[in-house]
């Protein structure tokens, strides 16, 4: 599970719907849940050393969304008001990138990788 908190919930839902095609279901309090289809995926996690002042590498937490193509996803991010923070980067058996959404939340994206 992940959670993205917004000042303008409707606008941020619109951004993610436009970029990733997400649909939301609201609960009684107005919280918008994104339900993903069941899938078996390789999970990867890590703990690294922060690099203060380097966008995408500051202290904190990040989560990554799997996308079929980093370039296409980043084009959509920019077209809908986000900004690329970390250009596509190859590491071990995968490629990733990072962006900020219109509310400056840092989000990672990752292409499928080989086991």
Instruction: Work out the helicity level.
Output: 10-25%
Structural class by helix and strand composition: alpha+beta
Helices, by number, come to: 2
Order of helices and strands: HEEEHEEE
Low-pLDDT ranges? none
Largest sheet geometry: 4 strands, mixed
In CATH terms, what is the architecture?
A: Roll
The strands making up the biggest β-sheet line up spatially as 3-6-5-4
What is the arithmetic mean of pLDDT? 90
For this structure, what is the CATH class? Answer: Alpha Beta
Query: What is the gyration radius calculated from CA atoms?
Result: 15 Å
What would CATH call the homologous superfamily?
Answer: 2,3-Dihydroxybiphenyl 1,2-Dioxygenase, domain 1
- Say what the CATH topology is: 2,3-Dihydroxybiphenyl 1,2-Dioxygenase, domain 1
Any idea what the shape is? globular
Written account of the structure:
- The chain is built from two helices and six strands.
- 19% of the residues lie in helices and 26% in strands.
- It is an alpha+beta fold and 115 residues long.
- Strand 1 (24-26) and strand 2 (32-34) form a beta hairpin.
- The longest helix is centred in the first third of the chain and has 12 residues, at 9-20.
- The model has no long low-confidence stretch (mean pLDDT 90).
- The chain has helices at residues 9-20, 70-79; strands at 24-26, 32-34, 64-66, 83-91, 94-100, 106-110.
- The protein has one domain: 2,3-Dihydroxybiphenyl 1,2-Dioxygenase, domain 1, CATH 3.10.180.10.
